[in-house]
Amino acid sequence: MTSTAPMELLHFHDPMCSWCWAFRPTWQQLRAQLPADLPVRRVVGGLAPDSDVPMEPAMRAKLQSVWQMIQARVPGTPFNFDFWQNCTPRRSTYNACRAVLAAKRLAPESEEAMIVGIQEAYYLQAQNPSDISTLVEIAQSMGLDAEAFAAEVSGATVEAALQEELAFARQAPINGFPSLVLRTASGMYPIGLDYLDAAPMLLQIHTAMEAAR
Description:
Layout: E1 7-13, H1 18-33, E2 40-44, H2 57-73, H3 83-86, H4 94-106, H5 111-123, H6 132-141, H7 146-153, H8 156-171, E3 179-184, E4 187-191, H9 199-212
Parallel strand pairs: 1-2
Antiparallel strand pairs: 1-3, 3-4
Helix pairs in contact: 4-5, 4-7, 4-8, 5-6, 6-7
């Protein structure tokens, strides 16, 4: 995961991370205010590895309580709790991460659209992005070729890219997802998150950029 850019903002995320979903509106505000010469690179961190085992009742209850906690802490974050009745949840997010990487390979500009598509399918439409069939439907809705996308998601190139990003996230100075880190020639600067206001994060980024120059 090397880069020739002298400085970049790393956004560590998982498309099925509920806190990443809650962070999305403020993240969009922050993106709009970043310096024009600061590249942004997304890194999928992989919350949960591949599994075909239905989620245990205790984990189902825990995640539903997390959604409720998020709604209390980040007012206005929408969740469709029908997911827990309509789907068979699995503690598995790697397929969703692969989908982001596959979409990016097929059309670099589709990376963001795939992330949003997964989040909206999961949190608004009560669909299960752990399922390849759901991910293929999202890709089709974006205008990607379903057959090519399915081949990429299950292919060796995307798997290698996923493992590379997972390894990079594990050694980065982060404690979970989402996380922001300013990477400079002199080191990595973690940026404290604010889910309600972009201004404090923007100040941290400017301060770290000045310190690195």
